[in-house]
Design a protein that fits this description.
Organism: Maritalea porphyrae
Number of helices: 25
Protein name: GGDEF-domain containing protein
Distance between the termini: 86 Å
Structural class: alpha/beta
Keywords: Membrane, Transmembrane, Transmembrane helix
Pfam family, one: EAL
Number of strands: 16
Strand content: 5-15%
InterPro entries: Cyclic-di-GMP_PDE-like, EAL_dom, EAL_sf, GGDEF_dom, Nucleotide_cyclase, Rev_trsase/Diguanyl_cyclase
């Protein structure tokens, strides 16, 4: 039964392989002119040799009719040869071609056999020759369409063999069997070739699919389905030309509040949030707008032609509004916001595509630092900042860090006894008489990957200086987010502390919430290494973030430093007083000490003393001083709590 089914399958068009069906149709369209040419020329040749024997209706009329049908079909094939068919259309077209091929084959063989009664033995041989040669030629042309080749061969060969065998003439019978043998051999070769062709098409389809999959992986973000960073830059570069006016708006977007959600609810929830944000952003994608996920919770969009600042801001506001709508996750319903940096390329074509991205990135950075959840359009002020950043980076890379980096020291006083409890080491950098702000050069060192080198030099100097301090005084040393994120740097810090002659339990490493937010698991692992070393951990700038309390619960902090923004308003704002009082009580109940930063007048100090905050740091008590001045304070038994006589000045960022 299976063999019978397999036999009849030879006459059917396969419907389980769309690629193969469309490939068959393409090949058939290429070969139809040759098929009709062979058939019509052979037919006129046969009609010419039979003209003297047979009536005109058979030698002229029938060939003309059959040729006309072939001409109509040929015209149709030529007209439709460039048309692209769907899979279903291709199957219908192939099935129609198989049926028509069988009918035409039967028509031609019927006509040729109708000439048999009128001719002599030579004419009879010509008829056999016409049938066999034509069927072989047509079958060879139909190698790519097995069903059509088999249908034509059967429709022609069966009537021919029956007719010639029925003549009972040995020569004719021999011709019939020879025809079957030759056509059978051709059919066998055709079936083998057809199978090879099917495998080739299938292999090409798999190769194309793999290529498309690789292209998709290379250009699309696997989580959101949006174009990825590579595709974004490709679109930026292709849409930007330095040969003429630029015409593109670059927007970079960062999700505010993503990290805490990812930490609290887990990575699956974080992925769900990113997918939803991607879906919302994709609504803005179109002919003029390209949206991409650049990595993590950062997205980008390109607009071409470029928008003016007003329209660019409108687009940014629409995106922010869309993202700020509640997001329903499996675990909870959450809200996030978006900070956006925008840049419409200058019209002078003087910058490269990567520079456009860098400028938009700077605008985004400014938004996250100063206008979180808002849109910032790149301006001349940002241009100035970038030039300064580039200058600082160049100077850093050419600096003699061991020689040029120095430390200033700002004491932390215990108000119960008026003595120095700890000293914070603050980084200073001077090159060729130019003093660089710590806030500027540390941030740039983080951006250009030099922070680890700075940390090693500064910690080495701090440990050497601290060996001369009294035993009850500890060293506070700041670690940046780049330090916490680098296993190499942290391993070096552990090695330096271990090899120094300064006890680890007298070192407090200060970190900011930013260091934790970037990668909580990494931060936790690194902080535990410091704790195993015996060092203490302080959370700097406490209160400036939105998730500090959860970090106090989950990480091994020994101290928090109350941000100076609270201290600055504590005199006149009852709400601030209530917040600070509650924070101090909460932190103390957790067994964590509190340091108030930025004390600049007596009123602030007195209010904090009433709230039972004993450790304080600020210009009222001491400005950052040199190592020699610090040792002078220690020689006076640390009783240097007299306020500075000079008026307070804006405090320097307490980075390294």
């Amino acid at each position: 039964m299976d063999r019978i089914r397999a036999f009849f399958d030879l006459y059917r068009v396969p419907i389980d392989n769309p690629e193969f069906a469309q490939a068959q149709l393409r090949e058939l369209a290429k070969r139809m002119p040759m098929i009709y040419f062979i058939t019509c020329v052979s037919s006129f040749g046969l009609a010419l040799t039979q003209y003297q024997f047979a009536p005109p209706i058979l030698t002229i009329g029938m060939p003309m009719i059959l040729t006309a049908v072939c001409a109509v079909r040929l015209r149709y094939w030529v007209k439709e040869k460039h048309r692209k068919y769907t899979y279903r259309e291709a199957i219908v077209r192939l099935r129609g071609s198989v049926r028509l091929a069988a009918l035409l084959g039967f028509g031609f063989v019927s006509w040729s056999l109708s000439l048999y009664p009128f001719g002599d033995a030579v004419a009879h041989s010509h008829i056999a020759f016409f049938v066999v040669v034509t069927i072989v030629g047509v079958t060879c042309c139909l190698l790519y369409l097995r069903a059509a080749a088999m249908s034509v061969a059967t429709a022609v060969l069966v009537p021919f063999c029956i007719h010639y065998i029925a003549t009972n003439q040995l020569v004719h019978i021999s011709m019939a069997f020879n025809a079957m043998l030759v056509v059978g051999a051709v059919a066998y070769a055709m079936l083998t070739y057809n199978n090879d062709f099917a495998r080739l098409i299938s292999g090409n389809a798999k190769t194309r699919k793999l290529s498309n999959d690789n292209l998709k992986l290379a250009n699309l973000d696997s989580l959101t389905g949006l174009p990825n960073r590579r595709k974004f830059f490709e679109a930026l570069e292709s849409g930007y030309s330095t040969e003429g006016p630029t015409d593109v708006t670059v927007g970079l977007l960062d999700i505010d509040g993503f990290k805490p959600i990812n930490d609290v609810y887990g990575h699956i929830a974080g992925d769900q949030l990113l997918v939803e944000v991607g879906n919302r952003l994709s609504k803005f994608s179109g002919d003029t707008v390209t949206v991409a996920r650049l990595g993590g919770d950062e997205f980008g969009f390109l607009v071409q032609p470029a928008l003016d600042d007003a329209r660019a801001k409108e687009l940014g506001e629409a995106i922010c509004k869309c993202i700020s709508e509640p997001i329903h996750l499996a675990q909870a319903t959450v809200r996030v916001s978006a900070s956006i940096g925008l840049l419409s390329a200058p019209v002078d074509g003087s910058v490269q595509a990567n520079q456009l991205f860098e400028k938009a990135d700077h605008a985004l950075y400014f938004a996250k630092q100063n206008s979180r959840g808002q849109i910032v359009i790149y301006s001349a002020e940002h241009e100035k900042a970038i030039r300064q950043r580039s200058f600082v980076e160049t100077e850093l890379k050419n600096a003699d860090l061991e020689k040029e980096l120095t430390l200033a020291f700002q004491p932390i006083f215990d108000q119960r006894n008026g003595k120095v409890a700890a000293v914070e080491a603050l980084a200073r950098w001077s090159k060729d008489g130019v003093q660089f702000s710590p806030d500027v050069f540390i941030r740039q060192a983080e951006r250009c990957g030099m922070m680890g080198k700075l940390t090693e030099v500064l910690l080495s100097k701090a440990l050497r200086a601290a060996r001369a301090w009294p035993d009850e005084v500890s060293l506070s040393f700041n670690l940046s987010a780049a330090d916490i994120g680098s296993e190499h740097t942290m391993a070096k810090i552990v090695e330096m502390v271990t090899n120094s002659r300064f006890p680890a339990h007298r070192i407090t490493f200060e970190i900011t919430e930013t260091s934790i937010v970037r990668d909580f698991d990494q931060a936790e692992a690194m902080l535990l290494k410091l704790k195993e070393l015996g060092a203490k951990i302080a959370l700097d700038d406490f209160g400036t973030g939105f998730s500090s309390l959860s970090y106090l619960q989950r990480l091994p902090f020994d101290r928090v430093k109350l941000d100076q923004s609270f201290v600055a308003t504590i005199e006149h704002d009852p709400k601030t007083q209530s917040i600070v009082r509650s924070v101090i009580r909460l932190v103390r109940e957790l067994g964590i000490s509190v340091v108030a930063e930025g004390i600049e007048n007596k009123a602030q100090r007195n209010l904090l003393l009433e709230m039972d905050c004993r450790l304080m740091q600020g210009f009222l008590l001491s400005r950052p001083i040199s190592s020699g001045d610090l040792l002078a304070i220690f020689r006076n038994n640390g009783a240097s709590t007299a306020e500075c006589e000079e008026p307070p000045v804006p405090s320097v960022a307490s980075g390294k």
